[in-house]
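Aggregate trends can hide what the representation actually does to any particular protein. In the encoding step, the backbone of a single protein was reduced to a row of integers, each denoting a local shape. The record that follows shows the chain in one-letter code together with its fold in token form.

***
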Amino acid sequence: MSEYDESLQDVGLIDSSERFQGILNIPISINSTLCGGIINMKPNYAKTALMTSNEMVFDDEKLIHGGFIFGAAEWAAHVAINTQYSVTISAKVNLYAPAKVGDLVEFEAHAYFEESKKREIKVIGTIKDIKVFEGTYQVVVLEEHIFKLQQKKKVNGEEEQ
């Protein structure tokens, strides 16, 4: 087991999808080493964590590229809505402080407008209880995969130019 895997195991992130089997509706094929693992979830709420690693480095000082933080927060948003088919259509984010290799970034996501197809999810990211990220994601909930919807549109001759 690598040092990275051991640190994930320490915070309960190894095989986190197995812990939530039966209540997890979202696809679990995502790479948890790049997007984070699930710590806790319930309807309209998720807590996830990302252990930063050398694969995320932006420069020689071991600064983590903000895209990995953004992606991990987006993953938390999707876990909070916990639906099989959804796609992010908008995001407004603030990165308040940088992350470095070895930081554990924890995300808490709260989803709103449960009855709507367009959901809003607020996500806060912290490192050692210091807020480093805050964002609002707009996610559309679909009845089937977005690519299948696009294929149906083409078959029916409704493709827009």
Remarks:
- Residues 3-155 form a domain with the Thiol Ester Dehydrase; Chain A fold (CATH 3.10.129.10).
- The chain has a mean pLDDT of 85.
- Residues 124 and 134 are 5 Å apart (CA to CA).
